Amino acid sequence: EKYLEDKKPYLNPEFKITDMARDLFSNRTYISAFINREYGVNFNRFINNYRLKEVERLQAEAVQRKQKASLMEIVIHAGFSNYRSYFRAKKMVKNDPVFVD
Fold first, then answer.
1. pTM as predicted
2. Do residues 58 and 69 lie in contact, with contact meaning Cβ atoms separated by under 8 Å?
3. Which of 10, 27, 48, 89 is deepest in the core (most CB within 10 A)?
4. For position 25, what pLDDT does the model report?
5. Phi and psi based region of residue 64 (left: phi greater than 0; alpha: psi -120 to 50; beta: remaining)
6. Among 3, 2, 15, 101, which residue's Cα sits nearest to residue 52?
7. Residue 92 has what pLDDT?
8. What is the block-wise mean pLDDT of the chain (101 residues), using blocks of 10 residues?
9. Is 59 helix (H, G, I), strand (E, B) or coil?
10. Could you tell me if 10 and 2 are in contact, meaning their C-beta atoms sit under 8 angstroms apart?
């Protein structure tokens, strides 16, 4: 969690489990097993949760600064590759909320 919060690698839409394993000097099998055991989700869903939180943060920041930013622009800045992947991730959390703030 510290790695993700400090480095924010999930902002890169191309971020993969192998990137995380490399950065943490581990391997993808261990990282995957850890995320599954501790959070009960796969890597992609785990990372998309961070991206969804980033969307919320960016929206709140835009409102606070009275800036106009399209949702599409915010979604891309949060690390989603497109609006469709954002919508799927949001729908998945809505239907089965795993993470609680």
1. 0.88
2. yes
3. 48
4. 97
5. alpha
6. 101
7. 86
8. 96 98 97 96 96 96 87 95 94 69 47
9. helix
10. no
Instruction: Give the angle 6-7-13 at the CA atoms, nearest 5°.
Output: 135
Q: For the chain, what's the residue count? A: 101
What the block records as the tokens of 32 is 């995957």
The amino acid at residue 5 is E
CB atoms within 10 A of CB 7: 11
pLDDT tens figures, 16-43: 999 999 999 999 999 999 999 999 999 9
Contacts of 14 (CB under 8 A, 6+ apart): 81
Distances (CA, A) of 21 to 17, 34, 48, 92: 6, 11, 17, 25
Cα atoms in the 13 Å half-sphere on the side-chain side of 51:
30
- Alpha carbons 16 and 28: distance in angstroms, whole number: 9
Residue 99: per-residue pLDDT: 58
pLDDT number for residue 37: 97
Residue 11 is classified by DSSP as: G
